[in-house]
Structures are given as structure tokens and as C-alpha cells.
Design brief:
By secondary structure, the chain is of the alpha/beta class. The radius of gyration is 22 Å and the shape is globular. The longest helix has 14 residues. A hairpin with a 3-residue loop joins strand 3 and strand 4. Helices cover 27% and strands 19% of the residues. Strands 5, 6, 7, 8, 9, 10, 11, 13, 14, 15, 16 and 17 form a twelve-stranded mixed beta sheet that branches. Strands 1-2-3-4-12 form a five-stranded mixed beta sheet.
């Protein structure tokens, strides 16, 4: 067997890609490889002290090969915040972002609290119901965060995600939203479990009037048995009530399921049915295959093992496996409809757009030529590496696609058509498209078992740290959220 490098017993045929990672035990920077093994692709790290550690990157090697052929557009940040390793061998242990980062942020997340009104068995933030609110940023501190982001943004301000913890536990959340809008941030997303939105009928209207753009709502399926496992309590009726209140307020929703193999993987098709049924308010679904950081059932396990350790904890599923299950459960959502976002690493996400037809069926609106050119979540196509107009269009598209009207202001669907393709009036089509279009996306978050430095360097979802750095989301949750680890 050929040897790629000393101590790396892989043949040339087996290694599909080489990169760098960190040991999931000691966090020492190390070499890593995507290796074909028995028809699958395994992400393998090699630590001199703790040996090999491998995690499935794709259940089918051919899916991996075809996926990574998609085009990539690099748009670097306007400026480096931290200083990286000149040889770039210690990523991601100097995030900030540094001069080696290859993609500017589209969305920046600001944590408003560590508190939450739930205690989920699966929680990337390890939020607590009785967390100390003394650590929450004040309005003045949040204003300084906004000002910092205005300094760092290109062309127009970043899109903002207000998160936590559960941001709706803060009574001043409307003030925080208004401040963002007054500062010039066009898009303000609220990451929420939806509980307060359900229990207080007017709360969605309060957030809408304050300037909230969309509710990014935790939604793990259409059965209470799923919520019992992932969230520790039955929540389906709460989710439905929250979505209804958002609809009445004209506040759009995207569903955000955490997908865990054996828990809700057989419910993916039902989630899509729910979206299509409520497409006038639910404008997208954003699948998140479970990642093992924060709080999860495997948290205390797999810490000290021998070489050849496995990161395939119970529940692990890749985005490829998720898409294949979606196609099997609902064939209208074909695997071939999806592609990665070009303005990011190809292994980070999937994306497609659809429209609900008058007969209730769905049709993919993402064309083959668009995929070949390279699409972003904002459908900007191929562009030069420093095309500032691309950045503006990226952020504007994310903003505009979420605009909806409350029921009393929504016009009826265009009558008399069998297909949206028959609509010839531009005004009628735009009205129909706005009400009936939706996106299907997913993001394969990394954890310490599969942290790929090349993916980290292309991350477009970043977290604003307390000291004013922009840290890629997966690196933040795997390493930087706990300052004792850095």
C-alpha cells in the first residue's frame, strides 16, 4: 500500500482530498483526509498522541465526488481581525477572522442570553433555564456590537441573527431589534423555539413592528414523540400556534429541524408536507443534521479511547444521507434538484428553490444552468473574487425573499391556471410567486470529530465574540464558546 505521507497509510486511490483538522481529544492541529472506504467517504484525522479518528462524510462515495465538482466563488473579508499562521497549519485556533479566511460573512450571529425557556437534551449552546442573566449584554454593549459590525461590513451591513439561548426571554428584545434597524441593518433574524410566540398572541406582531425580518423556528417534526426525545417535552401544538400567530402578524417563518438518525429521519417527508400546506407563512425549511457539540446524549462519552476511534455517534447523518431520504419519502424533491452554495465550501450546505403549483404539487425552480454557473443562497451566480455587488445582492436576496403580508392583506391565488408556468401577466406571476415560493436548504455543521480547516476558512455564518472578533460558527461552538478550551 502506498503512503501519502509519513505515518499516513492511505493509498493514492483511497485519498480523495487532504486538509487539516484538530484532534478531538487534545485539539492539536493535525493532518486530515477524506478517504474512500467500502464505498463510503470517511473524514480521518491523525493525531500523533491519540491516533486516528474517523467520521462518515458521505454514505456514498459517488455522491461526494459529484458534489465537490460544483463551482466555488471566494469573496474574502474586507479586513483581517486576527493574525493567522503564515503556513496556515494551526487553523482554527486563531479565529477572528484572520488573513487566511476566504469568505466574508453573509450572516453574523449575536448571542443575547444564555437563558432559555426549555432544557433540550440536544442544545448546541448548552443553554439553561436558570442561567445567570448577569452575563447578558446590556443595550449599550449590544449597540457597541452593532457599531463594530458596521465597521467590518462591505457595501451594506451584514444580515443579523439574534440568538442565544432563547432571545425571546429578554423583555427588551423589541428594543434590540429596533436598534438594529435604526443602525441600518436591513435583515434581522430571530432564532427561536417559538414558545413565547405561541403563548402570547400579540408577541409576533410586537416583533414584526419592531423590525424583525423572519423567525428562524426550531421545528423537529410533526410528531410529539420526536419532541419528547430531542426537546424533553411535547411541543407540536406549540409550534403550530406560534406559526399561526406569525401568519396573523405577517411575520414569515423558516422551519429549522435538527435531524437525528432513528429519531426523525422517517418524518422528513411529513415536514415537507407541513411546509407546503403553510407556504403562505412558512417560506423555507433549513435542515440541520445533528452535530455533536454543546449538550447531547454523547457529550460525556468517547473522550478517551484507543486509536481508530469513531465520530459516528448514534444519530449521525450526513447531508447526503438526508437528501437521499427526502427523495425516497417525497420523490418530487429529487436529489438532483439540490446543489451546494458557491460562496462557501461545497461540503457545508445544500440549496434549492421550489414553487407550489395550483394543484398542490411542487416544482423545482432552480435550473441546471444556474447550478452550472454556481449559485449562492442568494442566487448571485459566478462573480469575481472581490465583486462587492455580489455581496450586496447576497444580503438583499436573503432579506427580500421573506416578505409576506398578513392574511387580510393577501390576495387570492391567481384563478384559472393549472400551472404557474401558464401565468403570462408579470404582476400576477410575481404575486403568485411571492406567496407560493419556498426554499429547501440544509447546513452540515461540524464538531470536534470532523472539523475541516478548509471548511472553516470558507464559513459565511459567523459569530461576533465578546471581544469583537468574527468567528466561524462551527469553530465557535466546537472550541470558542467555552473559553477554557482556547
Amino acid at each position: 500500500m502506498a503512503v501519502i505521507t509519513k505515518g499516513t497509510p492511505f493509498s493514492d486511490a483511497e485519498v480523495l482530498e487532504r486538509t487539516r483538522s484538530i484532534c478531538p481529544i487534545c485539539q492539536r492541529p493535525t493532518e486530515a483526509f477524506y478517504v474512500e472506504e467500502k464505498g463510503t467517504v470517511q473524514f480521518t484525522t491523525l493525531c500523533p498522541e491519540h491516533g486516528a479518528f474517523k467520521t462518515t462524510a458521505a454514505e456514498n462515495a459517488e455522491d461526494y465526488r459529484q458534489w465537490i465538482k460544483n463551482p466555488v466563488i471566494n469573496i474574502a473579508p474586507k479586513e483581517a481581525i486576527t493574525k493567522g499562521d503564515p503556513e496556515d497549519k494551526s487553523c482554527p485556533l486563531h479565529c477572528g477572522t484572520c488573513e487566511n479566511h476566504l469568505q466574508t460573512a453573509c450572516c453574523v450571529l449575536i448571542d443575547l442570553t444564555d437563558r432559555c425557556n426549555q432544557h433540550c437534551p440536544y442544545c448546541f449552546a448548552k443553554s439553561e433555564m436558570d442561567a445567570d442573566r448577569k452575563g447578558e449584554p446590556t443595550l449599550s454593549e449590544i449597540e457597541r456590537k452593532y457599531d463594530r459590525l458596521l465597521e467590518l461590513g462591505e457595501e451594506r451591513p451584514f444580515n443579523i441573527q439574534l440568538s442565544g439561548g432563547e432571545p425571546t426571554v429578554r423583555e427588551d428584545l423589541p428594543d434590540i431589534i429596533r436598534m438594529a434597524k435604526d443602525k441600518g441593518f436591513h435583515y434581522v433574524q430571530i432564532n427561536s423555539n417559538g414558545k413565547r410566540l405561541a403563548l402570547e398572541e400579540e408577541y409576533a406582531q410586537v416583533l414584526k413592528e419592531a423590525g424583525a425580518s423572519v423567525i428562524f423556528m426550531q421545528f423537529d417534526g410533526t410528531k410529539d414523540s420526536i419532541y419528547q426525545v430531542l426537546r424533553g417535552e411535547p411541543l407540536l401544538e406549540i409550534k403550530k400556534k406560534a406559526i399561526r400567530n406569525c401568519e396573523l402578524a405577517g411575520l414569515p417563518v423558516t422551519l429549522v429541524p435538527t435531524i437525528v438518525e432513528g429519531v426523525n429521519t422517517d418524518n422528513i417527508g411529513d415536514m415537507m408536507d407541513f411546509l407546503v400546506e403553510h407556504v403562505n407563512v412558512v417560506k423555507g425549511i433549513h435542515f440541520q443534521p445533528v452535530s455533536f457539540f454543546g449538550r447531547h446524549p454523547e457529550h460525556a462519552k468517547n473522550k478517551e479511547k484507543d486509536a481508530a476511534q469513531s465520530g459516528d455517534f448514534p444519530g449521525r447523518i450526513t447531508m447526503f444521507g438526508l437528501l437521499r431520504k427526502l427523495e425516497r419519502q417525497r420523490p418530487q424533491f429529487r436529489y438532483e434538484n439540490f446543489c451546494p452554495i458557491a460562496t462557501g465550501h461545497t461540503l457545508c450546505c445544500f440549496y434549492s428553490t421550489y414553487i407550489k403549483e395550483p394543484d398542490g404539487s411542487v416544482r423545482c425552480t432552480l435550473t441546471q444552468s444556474q447550478k452550472e454557473r454556481g449559485v449562492s443562497c442568494c442566487d448571485t451566480g459566478r462573480a469575481a473574487a472581490r465583486d462587492i455587488d455580489v455581496i450586496k445582492r447576497d444580503r438583499d436576496f436573503v432579506l427580500n425573499k421573506w416578505e409576506i403580508a398578513p392574511p387580510e392583506k393577501q390576495e387570492d391565488n391567481v384563478p384559472g391556471y393549472q400551472s404557474s408556468a401558464e401565468i403570462t401577466s408579470l404582476d400576477e406571476f410575481l404575486r403568485y410567486y411571492r406567496r407560493n415560493s419556498f426554499t429547501v436548504t440544509g447546513m452540515a455543521f461540524q464538531d470536534l470529530t470532523n472539523l475541516d480547516a478548509e471548511r472553516v476558512k470558507r464559513c459565511r455564518v459567523q459569530v461576533l465574540s465578546e471581544d469583537g472578533r468574527l468567528i466561524p460558527f462551527c469553530a465557535y461552538n466546537s472550541i470558542y464558546r467555552n473559553p477554557d478550551q482556547v
